[in-house]
């Protein structure tokens, strides 16, 4: 197939996703990295992205942000952070956020959700609108798109998906829809043949999502903690999976309370396997395994 990789990306706003769990072993430090630097970083990432960065992430933070220091040519963490705080509109803020977020994901992750989604889609009036609020590198929204295609037995189902994330780098990767072949190892052969094109030549070993599925999805940058979201639609389905665990309870409550008016009264909200929304807000009621409906008496 010889991929023509487009760098085009639909962006309308400002950013949603998660914290890294890896650590960087440091035998020697290129830059001085003090406890005060780490405290400032924790405060800044919480302020701008809602991420509650734990105390044991110091090595990870050093490893990730030291790359930014080299890239912008500053001699110390304190200088880097001073520059950020003095320039609130700097593009470096996006790089700072991207460096401190992670994107652990896979196709059809938490597979019990997708038969529920398929049955729900078949019961709906069309067109259907879905919001994937933490799209990462695209595996989740494309899994949603494949489920919709299978539910309607068509590569052009009456479904539109908005997929958002805080990390601009992963949004670019998601919009391209190109993956290493081993990312599909748990997927059935018929599904792979139906929805992917195999790369040839220099792209051998890679696959690309078919254009029909890519056309179903609009990728946008969005920060779930921003005071004004660029999204005003009402959705039949919202996916917010494995995101809330990185926010403190106040941020979780704020986000869920803002989801409520954007979900149709009979719509579904999908959460991650380790997330329980019933103790955070009364706007939603549990309908099944990490699947919620709007509590219409409270919304």
Molecular structure report:
- This protein has 299 residues and is α/β, with parallel strands linked by helices.
- The chain has two domains: 65 residues, Chemotaxis Receptor Methyltransferase Cher, domain 1; 182 residues, 3-Layer(aba) Sandwich (Rossmann fold), CATH 3.40.50.150.
- It has ten helices and ten strands.
- The strands form two sheets. A seven-stranded mixed β-sheet has the order 6-2-1-7-8-10-9, covered by helices on one side.
- α5 packs across α6.
- The chain is globular and about 60 Å long.
- The N terminus is likely disordered.
Map the helices and strands.
Elements: H1 35-49, H2 58-72, H3 77-86, H4 92-99, H5 113-122, E1 128-132, H6 139-152, E2 159-165, H7 168-176, E3 178-180, H8 189-195, E4 196-198, E5 206-209, H9 211-214, E6 217-221, E7 235-240, H10 249-259, E8 263-271, E9 284-288, E10 291-294
Parallel strand pairs: 1-2, 1-7, 2-6, 7-8
Antiparallel strand pairs: 3-5, 4-5, 8-10, 9-10
Helix pairs in contact: 5-6
Give the tags:
299 residues, Chemotaxis Receptor Methyltransferase Cher, domain 1, Rossmann fold, 2 domains, seven-stranded mixed beta sheet, three-stranded antiparallel beta sheet, 10 helices
């Amino acid at each position: 197939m010889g991929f023509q990789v487009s760098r085009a990306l639909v962006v309308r706003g400002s950013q949603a996703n998660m914290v890294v769990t890896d650590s960087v072993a440091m035998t020697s430090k290129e830059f001085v990295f003090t406890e005060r630097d780490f405290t400032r970083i924790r405060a800044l990432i919480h302020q701008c992205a809602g991420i509650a960065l734990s105390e044991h992430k110091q090595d990870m933070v050093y490893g990730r942000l030291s790359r930014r220091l080299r890239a912008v040519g500053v001699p110390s963490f304190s200088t880097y952070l001073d520059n950020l705080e003095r320039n609130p509109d700097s593009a470096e803020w996006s790089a700072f956020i991207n460096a401190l977020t992670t994107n652990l994901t896979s196709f059809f992750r938490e597979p019990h959700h997708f038969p529920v989604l398929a049955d729900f889609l078949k019961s709906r009036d069309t067109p259907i609108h879905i919001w994937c609020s933490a799209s990462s590198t695209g595996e989740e929204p494309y899994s949603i798109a494949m489920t919709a295609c299978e539910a309607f037995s068509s590569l052009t189902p009456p479904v539109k998906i908005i997929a958002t994330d805080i990390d601009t780098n992963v949004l670019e990767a998601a919009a391209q829809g190109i993956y290493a072949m081993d990312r599909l190892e748990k997927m059935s052969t018929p599904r792979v043949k139906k929805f992917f094109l195999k790369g040839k030549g220099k792209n051998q070993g890679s696959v690309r999502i078919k254009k029909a599925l890519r056309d179903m999805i609009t990728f946008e940058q969005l920060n779930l903690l921003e005071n004004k979201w660029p999204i005003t639609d009402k959705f039949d389905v919202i996916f917010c999976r494995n995101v809330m665990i990185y926010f403190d309870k106040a941020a979780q409550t704020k986000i869920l309370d803002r989801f409520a008016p954007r979900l149709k009264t009979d719509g579904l909200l999908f959460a991650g396997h380790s997330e329980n929304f019933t103790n955070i807000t009364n706007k939603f009621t549990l309908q099944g395994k990490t699947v919620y409906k709007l509590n219409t008496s409270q919304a």
